Structure formats: C-alpha cells, structure tokens
C-alpha cells in the first residue's frame, strides 16, 4: 500500500513539474516572439502616438511629421474602413474559394490563384522596385482606398542597407504573368512610424502609400478592421494573398516565374498582442506586405511581414489606431 501511495505521489509531482515547465516555456516563447510586451506598449501609448507618424514626400524628398488627429472609439469593439468594388465580386468568400482549390491537398499549402484579375483578388497589388545595386525587389501591397495602399515598411525601404529607398517603385492591380488590369503606379507620399527607421522593430513594419493613380473605378479597394480587443483576433480564420519572389516549397523551381503570379493560403490567427500576431497561413519570400483577410468579413486584419525569430510561425502587423488614422489622412491627398 505504501508503495502504491508513493508511486501516485511521484506521478502527481511529475505532472505538476511538467505543467509548470510548459508554462515557463510558453512565457519564454512569448518573450521571444513579441519584442514588446502589452505593458511596454501601454506605456508608449501614454505618449502622443501621432508624434511618431511621419510622411515622406517623393516629389520634394522631404520627410516631416504628419498632421494627424488620432481618433478612436473605445465604445466600439471593431473600427473599420469600408471596402468598395466597382462591380459584383467574383467570389463572396476568398477563404472558401481557396479551401476549394486546396481540396485533397495538405494544409499549410500555397495555392496559385487562377483568376488574379477577378474580384476581390485584383485589389492585391504586385510590388516591384530596385535596390542600391540594381537588384530587383519583389513584394506585395493591398488597396485600402481609391489610391491608398497598405504594405510593409521594408517593402519601401531596404532595412538591410541603411533604409535605402527602393528605386523605380511600382505596383499593379490585377497582375498576372506580366499583364494587369491597369497601368502601374508609383507613389507620391508614404506615411510611416518613424520608430521603424530607428529600431526596425517588427511592430512598426507598416507603411501607407499614396499612389499616383486612382484605381477606384478599376478594382476598388479592401475594407479594413481594427479590433479594440486583440484577443478577438485569436483563432480567426484568415487568408493571405501575395506574390512570391522565391519558389513556394510545394512547386517545382523551373515551372514559371513565381513573382509574376499570385498565390494564396488559408490559416488562423494564433497568438496576438497589441500590435502583432502570429498566423498559420503558408508563406514565401515576396509575400511581405500582403493582406491578411478575415474570413467572416472579407476585410484586412493585418499585413504579413515575414517569419519571426523564436517562432516557427509567420508574423503580421495588425491593423492599429495609427494605421487607421494614417490611412484617413492619406485619403486627403
């Protein structure tokens, strides 16, 4: 009997130690994954966050503080920018459409979009520019206004080379195999958080771009959702769209130029905080800046910015007050 009691005690002790160890590991993972804790972010929010938003003018070459009035509603659980389509959408639900394309295939799989010129895919923009050595850069952006695009800051500035501004930066709607629905556009202004250039922290890796052309009558734009409580993001089914600059792992490397066609994948939002979240959608280099679209609404919840150190999952910048208000200011141009 004593042996039985001792055995049960040892089993219980091991179970408790294992549980505590899992909690410690989870805490360590969160610390590695997110460079800013909720408490640190709350402290920064005590400052005037509008003071950190800058606007770069491509015509004058001048960078100055943006004249933005930060407004938000604490009484609303979701703050939105409504989307627009000039004609009926080709599919009412991107997530379900990609699920159909993935039929019989493994999850975490990149799927070639067969109809990138159709709604609503065509609102996702192919991005291309050139670095200081003349090498071509590939990225992704998404229209969130008549001539307003949302992308990653590192799709505007080369963070591996003193934030060199990519030359001859252009984007195209409805792009597929070197054809598109309308002529490409460069940008006239970029709104961004100045802390991106001083820290390169992932929570600041976003940019609002004012384009040279108005695409509202060609493709329209996506809606955007900002959740007041970031916990509402977790477990949400989402779709990532973008233009891989390197071959997806599930495709033969010599089949076609990957950066000339759109891919998509489904996943869910995983761990989230005030400014970032992890997601489980499949990705490839070149999809940075691509929209992460909520299944339930078809609106953008964030932008993909790449892999995060300390995690096997990709990282996104979630839609924040800064992004919403920067977009509204950009609409004035």
What does this structure look like?
The protein has two domains: 2-33; 43-330, Thrombin, subunit H. It has 333 residues and is an alpha+beta fold. The model is unreliable at 13-32 and 42-46 (pLDDT under 50). A hairpin with a 5-residue loop joins β1 (53-57) and β2 (63-65). The chain contains five helices and 19 strands. It has helices at residues 2-33, 38-45, 94-101, 195-199, 321-330; strands at 53-57, 63-65, 78-81, 111-112, 124-130, 136-145, 148-151, 157-158, 164-165, 167-173, 187-193, 207-211, 224-227, 237-242, 263-272, 276-279, 291-294, 300-307, 314-318. Helices cover 19% and strands 30% of the residues.
- The separation of the N and C termini measures 82 Å
Shape: globular
Number of helices: 5
Instruction: Please estimate the helix content.
Output: 10-25%
Widest sheet, order of strands = 2-1-11-12-7-6-5-10
- Strand segment count: 19
What portion of residues belong to β-strands? Answer: 25-35%
Order of helices and strands: HHEEEHEEEEEEEEHEEEEEEEEH
- What's the architecture of the largest domain, going by CATH? Beta Barrel
Would you give the CATH topology of the largest domain? Thrombin, subunit H
Structural class: alpha+beta
Total domain modules: 2
Q: Average pLDDT value?
A: 82
